[in-house]
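Problem: given the chain below (364 residues), write out its structure.
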Amino acid sequence: MGIIVVIVTGALMVIGLYWFVWILGPAERQGKRGVNLSGGSIAAEKVQDNYKQYWSFFRHPNEIETSERVPDFVDTFYDLVTDIYEWGWGQSFHFSPSIHGKSHREATRIHEEMAVDLINVKPGDRVLDVGCGVGGPMRAIAAHSRANVVGITINEYQVKRARQHNKKAGLDSFCEVVCGNFLQMPFPDNSFKGAYSIEATCHAPKLEDVYAEIFRVLKPGSLYLSYEWVTTDKYISENAEHVAIIQGIERGDALPGLRSYTDIAEAAAKVGFEILKEQDLAKPPALPWWARLKMGRFAYWRNHILVTVLAAVGIAPKGTVDVHEMLFKTADFLTRGGDTGIFTPMHMILCRKPVTDSTSFDYC
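Solution.
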């Protein structure tokens, strides 16, 4: 009888592990599985050390306020989280308003297509994706607009993943991925017919620096759209709970500091953009963007068990459990930011580079 119990128990454990990894494991059925979790470009044995290094940035906050330190900080973060993001979230590393009758994937696609529709590009136009990640938005936008999209990301591992996804989707002739710093982009002046950034420029220590680079590479008369992470008019800097929520978001998402919604248009105008439209897409009648985080709590615990097992048996790198736990805590801060209304990840701004381009503006 005892032998039968052991055999049945062992069989159930094997079936359970198979279920976790192969049935529930892929991120929205898009290919990344739990057994393939890595530290990006970081060697497996260095993941835990790099996780500690990431948190060391916050022990010396003044060091991450400079543009010299931030790229390393952000690059380390995306090495640590890219596989977990893909596995648990999908290939589009951003939020979108929930839509009645639509899946999360459909709502995400609609949110991405709106970005390129607003910048009025035509098939064949060269468009810049500022902070493209693994290219989920890039592929949706290229497929929708038939524009030629060039994405830039600072993380080499994300470049590799984006290129693999582009080829698999049959969109590599429309999508190009470049490894580089969006504060110093390797593109000539006046070389893009449009540009967009989806929840990416929040990583810049000074928003006007990245906006100035985007302004430089756009052709005169071209449009730029951004979805920005900001604190809203409900945020009270003297409220300890509000401060704790915002600091939790900053630390869990590699942000040198969240900006106020009032800073966005000011930064864009400072570098020479004409402001055409500004709107918080998270406000009613939009449905809560953070609903997906609340509904994902079961998935987190399921995934956390798997990550713990994979790390214990040596399949996933040491430190993966810590990174996964950090992201879950960050999800709680993001949810609280949504519930209180003090934070939005989709403050939209639409700008135009004037037809008469004055390159002598001062944005320092």
